[in-house]
Amino acid sequence: MRLQEFWSRMESQFGSMRAQTVARDHVFGALGERTPVQAIEAGLPVRRVWLEICQEYDVPPKDR
User: Fold this and answer.
1) Which of the 8 DSSP states describes residue 64?
2) pLDDT class for 22, splitting at 50, 70, 90?
3) Among 2, 14, 23, 24, whose CB has the most other CB atoms within 10 angstroms?
4) Dihedral pair phi/psi, residue 58, rounded to 5°
5) DSSP state of 33
6) Nearest-angstrom CA–CA distance, 48 and 38
């Protein structure tokens, strides 16, 4: 998954404003106590970050 696809899915799932909040403010234990943006910047695969968000927010499997 590319970063552009990540942001597209985030906005589709959460809306543009909430997507930014989830990605920049929500700390995930499974991402090393980092926000999704911090995790991506630290080199974690974008797909892994996306799947952790999906799990935390109960995103339906068809949208993952």
Assistant:
1) -
2) very high
3) 23
4) 50, 45
5) S
6) 13
Token couple for 36: 């999704």
- Token representation of residue 32: 């090393």
Q: How does pLDDT run across 47-64, given as a tens digit for each residue?
A: 999 999 999 999 999 989
The whole-number pLDDT of residue 45 equals: 98
**Burial status of residue 14 (CB atoms within 10 A of its CB: 0-12, 13-18, 19 or more):** middle
Q: Are the C-beta atoms of 39 and 32 separated by less than 8 Å?
A: yes
| Rounded alpha-carbon distances, angstroms, from residue 2 to 5, 8, 33, 48 | 5, 10, 22, 11
